[in-house]
Each structure stands twice: as structure tokens, then as C-alpha cells.
Design brief:
It contains five helices and six strands. Helix 2 crosses helix 3 and helix 4 packs across helix 5. The longest helix has 13 residues.
């Protein structure tokens, strides 16, 4: 399912250049292969949240075109967070995100197939917390890292959430 995310002020699946700017210091850009979304300060934040949550919750995140992370301009972060909540997103605590992250992949790096395309409340319950009515689980992340399980392709209704102070200053 590919939603029309490319609108003035909102860049969806096709912002590879921006993501490369974020990752240039890290020398890797593996997330760029799987569709990150960026919500910029001039975006229609409510519409962006609606489209992203709908895309990631469709078929429990198993659609190949589903976003794999969200980067939010700090100027609209509170508004975006509230909009995502209204659309059914559940923002996990750091402890909840750590518990779920530890379950997603085997120690050898292979994906846990029993967690692919599973609804958000079931994923939460398996990780030891409750997220009743959630359509998407959101994990606050500070950095992109190869060691972070949230920086791998997630075939589930899970979204890493990054906040960028001022993307125009990157580079």
C-alpha cells in the first residue's frame, strides 16, 4: 500500500538524500532502503500522522512500502506526537522499548518470524507490557546505530521515532 505522502512540506518515502545527510557521519544508510518518513515544520502534521500510522498498521506493518521510521522536526514534535496518539500510536517508555527490542531478533541476528505481522497489543503483551487499542508501537530513539534492533527492517507495526533539531543545519 503506497499512500500519497509527497506533499508540500512533508516528505515521505523518497527522502533518501536527507537520510544520507543524517547518516553521513556514521558511514551507513541501511534504513534508507526501507522507507523512512520525515515530518517537517511546514507539514500538515495531522494528515502526515494519519497517513504514516495507516501505512504502518496496514497488514500489521508487513507491506513492503510501509515506513520504517519517522524523523520529526523538533519545531513540530509535540504536535506530531499528539497527532500520532490520536491516530492510535502508543509511545513506549524506554523500558518497554528495550523489552520489545530484545524480542525482535534472535541472538544470531535472524528475524523472529513469530513476531512478523503481529498486531501491536499482542507484541506489547509478549514484551511484558500493555498497549490496549494501539495500532502502532513507537520507540523514541536518539541515534541511528547498527546495534539497535529498531534500525533494522521491522515487518510489524513498530516505528522508531527520531527528533531532529534543525535538519537545515546538517551537513
Amino acid at each position: 500500500m503506497h499512500l500519497p505522502l509527497l506533499q508540500p512540506g512533508f516528505i515521505g518515502n523518497d527522502w533518501l538524500g536527507y537520510f544520507h545527510l543524517i547518516c553521513s557521519a556514521c558511514s551507513f544508510s541501511f534504513l534508507a532502503l526501507w522507507g523512512p518518513a520525515f515530518i517537517e515544520r511546514s507539514a500538515d502534521v495531522c494528515k502526515a500522522a494519519e497517513y504514516i500510522v495507516l501505512s504502518k498498521s496496514f497488514d500489521y506493518g508487513s507491506a513492503p512500502s510501509a515506513e520504517q521510521c519517522v524523523v520529526v522536526d523538533a519545531a513540530v514534535e509535540k504536535e506530531a506526537r499528539d497527532a500520532f496518539r490520536r491516530c492510535g500510536a502508543f509511545f513506549m517508555t524506554q523500558a518497554e522499548a528495550a523489552a520489545l527490542g530484545a524480542l525482535l531478533f534472535h541472538s544470531n541476528g535472524r528475524r523472529r518470524r513469530d513476531l512478523v505481522a503481529v498486531d501491536a497489543p499482542t507484541l506489547a503483551r509478549r514484551a511484558g507490557f500493555q498497549a490496549p487499542g494501539a495500532t502502532v508501537l513507537v520507540a523514541d530513539r536518539r541515534f541511528v546505530s547498527e546495534a539497535d534492533s529498531y534500525n533494522r527492517e521491522l515487518i510489524a507495526p513498530i516505528l522508531p521515532w527520531y527528533v531532529e533539531d534543525d535538519w537545515r543545519q546538517i551537513g
